[in-house]
Write a structure and sequence with these properties.
Layout (H helix, E strand, L loop, with lengths): L19 H10 L5 H18 L7 H12 L3 E8 L2 E8 L2 H17 L6 H13 L4 H15 L9
Antiparallel strand pairs: 1-2
Helix pairs in contact: 1-2, 1-4, 2-3, 2-5, 3-5, 4-5, 4-6
Family: Belongs to the universal ribosomal protein uS7 family.
GO molecular function, one term: rRNA binding
GO biological process, one term: translation
Length: 158
């Protein structure tokens, strides 16, 4: 690259939980710069998770963090052209990329759900991911399966 690498800008913690991870998630959830609406959707989703969790000892925020951890991939496949053929090479993922992929998958598959509001969709996907089921978790297992299938090409590392 010609230019220097862009600096990481510090994120302010969210107002309710004082957690930077929540702010990062809300920034991914945000649409057209409507951050207050994104925060409302997220907090409403956590309220729904809190009401549906039952007598579990975990808080809604901990359930959301568990869901994020369950959706986080550890390896991915990258295309590399070698000798006229394209190979899918499994590569480990950087920590910040793991988190951002998990967040994007949770949001993407929440939007694809059939529920009334985005808060309900997000809550349903978070609960499913915390139980190691749902579309976002399936995406992670498919990614891992793809990397496992192409393990033979791992010696072609970048």
């Amino acid at each position: 690259m010609r230019k220097t690498k862009a600096k990481k800008r510090p994120l302010l913690p969210d107002p309710k939980f004082s957690d930077q991870l929540v702010t990062r998630f809300v920034n991914n959830l945000m649409f057209d710069g409507k951050k207050s609406i994104a925060f409302k959707i997220f907090y409403d989703a956590l309220d729904i998770v809190e009401s549906k969790k039952g007598d579990n000892e975990k808080s809604a925020l901990e359930i959301w963090k568990d869901a994020l951890t369950n959706v986080m991939p550890h390896v991915e496949v990258r295309s590399r052209r070698i000798g006229g053929a394209n190979f899918q090479i499994p590569m480990p993922i950087r920590a910040d990329r793991k988190i951002s992929m998990a967040m994007k998958w949770l949001i993407k598959y929440s939007k694809a759900r059939n529920d009334k509001s985005m808060a309900q969709k997000l809550a349903a996907e978070v609960i499913a991911a915390a139980k190691e089921e749902g579309a976002a978790y399936k995406k992670k297992t498919d990614t891992h399966r793809m990397a496992e299938a192409n393990k033979a090409f791992s010696h072609f590392k970048f």
